[in-house]
Amino acid sequence: MRNERKRPLDDEVDLLELLEGLWQRKVVILLATLVVTGAAVAYALLATPIYEAKLFVLPPAKNDVSLLNQGRGGDTGLDMFKSSDVFQVFARTLQSEALRRSFFRETYLPSLPEEMRRGGGDELYARFNKAMVVSQLSKEKADRFNVTAYTSDPKLSEQWVDLYVEMAGAKARAILVADARSDAEAVANNLDQSIQQARASVRKQREDEVARLTEALRVAKSIGLERPPIISNNLTAEVSSAMTGALTYMRGSKALEAEIGNLQSRSSDDPFVSNLRQRQEALAYYRELRIDPGAIGVYQKDGPTDVPDTPVKPRKVLIILGGLIAGLGLGVALVLAARLRASRVGSKAVA
Questions:
Q1: 0.85 cut: is pTM over it?
Q2: Pairing of strands 145-151, 300-301
């Protein structure tokens, strides 16, 4: 019981002794704090400042994609391009590895000093991935992306962000125009095929008509019927209208020979092809369809590129404060280590 009552007092004495020992070695603690804090201050002042430039992008307006919808919709079988569809293509391009590699080779590497470009390719690419970041704003805002560049020059950061987005836009526009042109080519091919089939069908019908009239001509000649028979009263019109099929020979050999000659000498069946001119006009339209990529918008900037006046790295206040705390902790640790070592030596001497 006596030992238990003395423990709080002993703990208080030990704590006082510890504080007294630290105070006695305050010079060591102060020196350690000054050295580490000085190093932190030197780093904060000498470290290369890093500036951050940001750009937010949104889906394009409906008017921006209108040129892509030429010759689409209605009964063409081609779906209309929506701004969300166009932005999906842009978003995939913006996040693509192909775009990052292109920007790395064409922009990032030429910006480095010669001695830095001699380093390993993987290491340089890893640095680039930290310097250029593309991210989706949030799951709730899936149609909004943020492009950020980190460089030692605020103007360069701004240029990189704008250039990166422009490269993504150019590649996305090329993909969309190629898709639209491919769709137009498919429609044109279908129209061309339908025209050829219609012409072949009309030609075949003409050949079949010639065959039928030739048979009727043989019948007319066999019975010596050169001209249609003359029928009195009102039966003439009725019989004339019925001179088809088995009664075609009743037109007479003269009329049949003239009709056969006319069909055989026909130079073109085009006037007898249904809707031929409309189909030819549509074919020419889709064959000659051209879309200017520069007139298509695949994204919108959500405000101007954000370039801060102050660097985001290094964070001088945090670095100095961290150095102060670390130096103070190092000084205390050194004093405690010295006391522990002295106590061990003393205990060995007593033993």
A1: no
A2: unpaired
